[in-house]
């Protein structure tokens, strides 16, 4: 399948003591390959962020190993572990963890970005005009963009992102998703993300794992993992087209609605006016599937 970037074996992590003890990760085993865009999905409290924190070298597991380039990071001394996190791993967690006493520009420069790289990243996240501002003067979405730019400034080998686009407006979300895809094409970065946005996951991921109650319960191709193949003879729902694929003489439209991605089989005539990103109503007429585009 490829060259291994990260190997996780027997990872256990619990919080609390006695009757209050909760095991967040239960004997987790996982192999991640160089250049993958791996998404971790699952319900709230399932252990997704805990797993990401263990992989980042921030949260020490109770048992198990995390091997990066042949080195078990949790057997390193504190100085070596800190150096590994600084030089090889970029991460963005939901709390952002920006330095409050540094400007936006200084946050990026501290991460190791030279002046040219910092300028390019500020342009990417459209924060050039806020470069001299401090984090406590920024909105949540602006802070998230700074945190993502800072992670990219390191030119990391491993990029770990926890809901990286959750507070962004749709236009900025699409822009940064496009940039993540370009980074994947240009550089050999291995990216692991946590998200609840099924349309984002389907669009970006090369592989998806599902986590439930601290265990990995699914692992595979995004369409196989995410697509609901259960159909009804009578339905109607509103959603957004995330992909259109041709299968012989028919087309399959994949539509994200809420927490579900559904497949609708259509003819060439049906999809002539449809594109990924279109908001549509999917329904049936005489047991035949139909999609009607919503005009903006």
Draw up the topology in text.
Layout: E1 4-15, E2 22-33, E3 37-41, H1 48-55, E4 63-68, E5 71-72, H2 78-88, E6 89-92, H3 104-110, H4 115-124, H5 140-153, E7 158-162, H6 170-186, E8 190-194, H7 198-204, E9 207-212, E10 215-220, H8 222-226, E11 227-228, E12 236-247, E13 250-257, E14 260-266, H9 268-271, E15 279-285, E16 288-293
Parallel strand pairs: 3-8, 3-9, 6-7, 7-8, 11-14
Antiparallel strand pairs: 1-2, 1-4, 4-5, 9-10, 12-13, 12-15, 13-14, 15-16
CATH class of the largest domain equals Alpha Beta
Mean pLDDT: 85
Helix content: 25-40%
Number of domains: 2
- Figure out the total of helices: 9
The number of strands is 16
The radius of gyration is 21 Å
Order of strands in the sheet with most strands:
6-7-8-3-9-10
Order of helices and strands: EEEHEEHEHHHEHEHEEHEEEEHEE
Q: Enumerate the spans where pLDDT stays under 50 for 5 or more consecutive residues.
A: 228-234
Shape estimate: globular
- Output the CATH topology of the largest domain: Rossmann fold
* CA distance, first residue to last residue: 43 Å
Name the CATH homologous superfamily of the largest domain: P-loop containing nucleotide triphosphate hydrolases
What is the beta-strand fraction? 35-45%
CATH architecture of the largest domain: 3-Layer(aba) Sandwich
Structural class: alpha/beta
The biggest sheet, with number of strands, parallel, antiparallel or mixed sense and barrel status, is: 6 strands, mixed
